[in-house]
Amino acid sequence: MTYSEKTLDLLLKGQIQAAEKEFFWALRKDEPEMLFSLAEELYSLGFSNMAKRVYTKLLEQFPTEDELKTALAEIAISEGKDDEALNYLKQVTPTSNAYLEALLVLADLYQTQGLFEISEQKLLQAYRLAPDEAVIWFALGELYFSLKQYRQASDFYLKLIKADILEYAKVNILQRLGVSYAASGEFEQARQYLEQIPLPQLDADTLFQLAFTQLQLKDYEHAIQNFEELKEMTADYATLYPYLGVAYEQNGQLNDALVTFQEGISVDSYNVELYQMAGRVAAKLGQNEQAQKYWHKGLELEPENLTLLLELSNLLDALKLDEENLALLEEYLSQEQSDPQLYWNRGKALVRLDRYDEAIEDYQAVLKQLDESVDFLHDATLFFRNVGLREEALYCVQKYLQQVNDDFEMEQLFTELNSELY
Asked: What gap in Å lies between CA 304 and CA 394, rounded to an integer?
């Protein structure tokens, strides 16, 4: 064995001190070709300091060998020595055989600095020079993927797959392409690639993406199956619970959906979305008190959540729990909450409590905002007529009949109001 081979053998066995002794002799006795191979192996194994010593020694012997400069630049980048890396790379000219590699290393350097546009320029320059190089396809795919430019990323991942390259630098290309398609909203294409990955090879994030894609395609059975598989793999994967619950809900399994949302709350008790969803399903199941508790808890965590407020107020309105609804709305409407549904809900509660003068203000406040809602127009027509505001009643019934042309009772009311006013 050469000294270089002995060095690597001892390092792999964990005998560091003995390896350093052989490394000392390798630098002095082994041929340049052997030393170059040694440096590559050392760098790949994580011994970058030793690799740097070899490359530096070789560069002293062969100062025009640009491949050594790109290798040293790559090590300098890993050490955070950007200026040193740039110094090496500037020495590599476009006529050099190592120029393509230098462009790739430059792209990596600019990416670590957050200069993504310059990094992209260098990679595209390399792509123009060598459009069939898989390493460039991969580099561009990874850059666009990291920037969430998924459509561009998918173009280059697809090139790799068409070249029968399903893994590169320990990255699963099927996974990358599937996720890129899913993030671009191209769920059919996403499923096509994600489902090719054997289940044992799916990490948690990829399994989530597969289940999420199936959910978007309304393939609820398979989505549920894979979300449940993910839950068994890692029960603290908090993101899965809202989607698994929705899959159960859309599949008509409301009890399972509610249990899932409850499990999610136990994993992430600050996730307002879970309280909102749990309340919605509880209400569907007729568990109205439970629904109110979930929505109240959600509002405690996120007082400005209008969706929660509306759902809770609408439930209280449906149950005719008027005092509770007024207490809820008093707090929020005093903050100039603008959603007209809330004012209408308060108006209905005031009417049922015979507080007509107060109700008039709420109905008038949202008259123009809700004049496309047939439910509001029907209710408001009757309310305004009953409190003697015939002009407002006539306005509402006219708007109503523009949308509903087969309501005989409202047609009669229109005739009456019209004759009374004109």
From this structure: 36
